[in-house]
Design brief:
Layout lengths: L1 E4 L2 E7 L5 E6 L6 E6 L6 E7 L2 E6 L3 E6 L4 E7 L5 E7 L3 E6 L3 E6 L4 E7 L4 E6 L5 E6 L3 E6 L4 E7 L6 E7 L2 E7 L2 E6 L2 E7 L4 E7 L4 E7 L12 H5 L3 E7 L7
Antiparallel strand pairs: 1-2, 2-3, 3-4, 5-6, 6-7, 7-8, 9-10, 10-11, 11-12, 13-14, 14-15, 15-16, 17-18, 18-19, 19-20, 21-22, 22-23
Length: 255
């Protein structure tokens, strides 16, 4: 998870060793460790931040919430009965959590009350909330991808994928509705059908779409660190990923 405060960048990393580490970086200065502690009883599998809020979760089935402005612990959220696999925010008003128990929970950040749950009775691998806040797309262990209508609180569309969709995000161009990563392959979809695929030499561990530049950035486990000094703090983030791949989401070309 990343966040910025007045030009400074704060990066939060969760590890398999239960630890959460915060790094603060000011342009032109070395990165500094802001905090490092062990809030979870098991591996940290998901994190998300928006505004002043940071949330982390993992295999201990607990969501920890923090105020990043004051650097204080706001408490814990309990509901899931399985490893929490994905967290996300829509603005600063709502947080979403997904887990292997098949539940996608919607939390109100004002008082951290759980408003409702979307249950497909199958382990959720990843999810992504649409920028409108009206839709959510999620991938499941049984290779199904579902589109949830958040206004009506029900699944409005589903499809069987060729492989398990380990990561899913919304697209960043009119030609790409959403993007799914499965192993080494990233597939771009439009109207529910794959329009083109992007092949990598190693499994994709993370994706982000940048609408402003019509770019899809993929981090893969190639086992090498990026060479470019100009990447600055991004090098810290990618030392675990290995390689960074930039794709043009309009025609699928690599840049």
């Amino acid at each position: 998870s990343t966040g910025d405060e007045g030009g400074d960048m704060r990066v939060v990393l969760g590890s398999y060793h239960k630890q959460v580490t915060g790094i603060e970086w000011t342009p032109g200065e070395p990165a500094a460790t802001l905090f490092a502690f062990t809030p979870h009883l098991a591996s940290v599998k998901a994190s998300a931040c928006c505004g002043k809020y940071l949330a982390t979760a993992g295999t201990d089935e607990t969501i920890k919430v923090y105020n990043m402005e004051k650097l204080i612990d706001l408490g814990e959220l309990h509901f899931h009965n399985g490893t929490i696999t994905s967290l996300g925010f829509h603005g600063t008003s709502h947080m979403f959590s997904a887990a292997e128990d098949g539940q996608i929970c919607i939390w109100r950040t004002r008082d951290w009350e759980r408003l409702t749950s979307l249950d497909a009775q199958e382990a959720v691998l990843d999810m992504s909330v649409h920028s409108s806040g009206r839709m959510l797309i999620a991938t499941y262990r049984n290779r199904v991808i579902r589109l949830w209508d958040l206004v009506k609180g029900r699944c409005s569309w589903k499809k069987n994928l060729p492989q398990r969709g380990e990561h899913v995000i919304w697209g960043c161009t009119p030609e790409t509705e959403f993007v799914v990563a499965a192993g080494n392959t990233v597939s771009c979809y439009m109207d529910g059908e794959a329009t083109f695929t992007l092949e990598h030499e190693a499994p994709v561990l993370a994706m982000v779409a940048i609408e402003q530049f019509s770019l899809l950035i993929c981090g893969t486990a190639d086992g090498q660190s990026p060479k470019s000094e100009s990447l600055g703090l991004v090098r810290i983030l990618l030392c675990r990923l290995g390689k960074l791949h930039l794709w043009n989401c309009t025609d699928g070309g690599q840049t």
